């Protein structure tokens, strides 16, 4: 919960104090990536999440960085609509799993556990779409008129 809260506020504070930078953005996204990927890997090792998801997240993040800095030669990360929302929802499986372990009514525990699994499958699909989108986007830009 602290990681999510600090992630939400650090960018706002950096912009408000005029200290936001491309390096800060890369650091923020890299720490988010490390947190969610290691959390997803732990859930996958415990059999609570498909092991495909952390692998796809690693591929998507690598593609995001390489695409931004090397393909488009930008000085900062180049976000996509789908990638941004994936980044937000990547925290979801861990939060839902944690919620499923709270001393709640049995129905809610089951609901949160099942929601975590289904969100994981949804994120596999949306991450695959994001990877495909980033792969074909440069081809669309080079298409002759």
What distinguishing features does this structure have?
145 residues, globular, 78% helix, mainly alpha
Run of helices and strands: HHHHHH
Stretches where pLDDT falls below 50 for ≥5 residues? none
**What share of the residues lie within helices?**
over 70%
Number of helices: 6
Q: Calculate Rg over CA atoms.
A: 17 Å
How much of the residues is beta strand, in percent?
under 5%
Structural class comes to mainly alpha
State the distance separating the first and last CA atoms: 49 Å
Average pLDDT reading? 83
Number of strands: 0
Q: Overall 3D geometry?
A: globular
User: What characterizes the major β-sheet?
Assistant: none
What quaternary form is this? Answer: single chain
Number of domains: 1
Description:
The chain is mainly alpha-helical and 145 residues long. It has one domain. The chain is 78% helix and 0% strand. It contains 6 helices and no strands. Helix 2 runs antiparallel to helix 3, helix 3 packs parallel to helix 6 and helix 4 packs antiparallel against helix 6 (106-141). It is globular.
How would you summarize this macromolecular structure in one to three sentences?
With 145 residues, this protein is mainly α. The protein has helices spanning 2-16, 22-45, 52-71, 81-89, 92-100, 106-141.
Question: Which helices and strands, and how do they pair?
Answer:
Blueprint: H1 2-16, H2 22-45, H3 52-71, H4 81-89, H5 92-100, H6 106-141
Helix pairs in contact: 1-2, 2-3, 3-6, 4-6, 5-6
